[in-house]
Design goal:
Length: 274
Amino acid sequence: MIQKCLFPAAGYGTRFLPATKALPKEMLPILTKPLIHYAVEEALDAGMDTMAMVTGRGKRALEDYFDISYELEHQIQGTNKEKLLGDIRRLMDKCTFTYARQNEMRGLGDAILKGRPLIGDEAFGVILADDLCVNEDGQGVMTQMVRMYEKYRCSIVAVMEVPQEETHKYGVVEGSVIEDNLVMVSNMVEKPEPKNAPSNLAIIGRYILTSDMFNIIETTKPGKNGEVQITDALLTQAQKGMVLAYKFQGRRFDCGSIEGFVEATNYMYSKKNG
């Protein structure tokens, strides 16, 4: 039902300098696959086959990754190294990749708005590749959220409980529980100080957004740091209609931080060799 997934990928990745001076943070590898590969796999597993990427200057490696490398493939053709390209070939065969650019860093809301020509007038998923999510016991996070969307047909954000002292790192929601792991949002605050946080339910980088979100973002005034916050746009939508917060099953690694990146690498390595 939801066929398109948007990947905001225009950020500078300053926490990983100097590596990200030349390498997009979405191309940082966890073992042998870059973060964007895991993100696209999650979207495809959820039934989405059109991947809309919002990039910026210096991000051509993202486009090249999801394209044929004739010289490389010729060099390894017929060798035991050819099988190493199996996963990426699968994504290239099953997905369509489209691209737009965010010329100026004006926040996640603006990045999503830049993807409007790629999405059109339909509901869509959003995945932030530096939030790596795994669920060994069942379905991926985006698949879980699609199930929720099929039932409620409204925008949905993925949330998790965080320590109260870490609320300043996230958008935080409050609301009323309508079923297990599902909250109807009544309030959202972007990166509140712990004493001002309405709850400890933090938004992570997974969303399903209805098509009217584009119009809402257009009229949303810049918030913290002069950026257009998707949290503010979602709050407007929640006040006018309904937005749900889903406590997903699985584990999330913050690969936008060095600590989270190392933790994810160690986890994937132990899983591979376990």
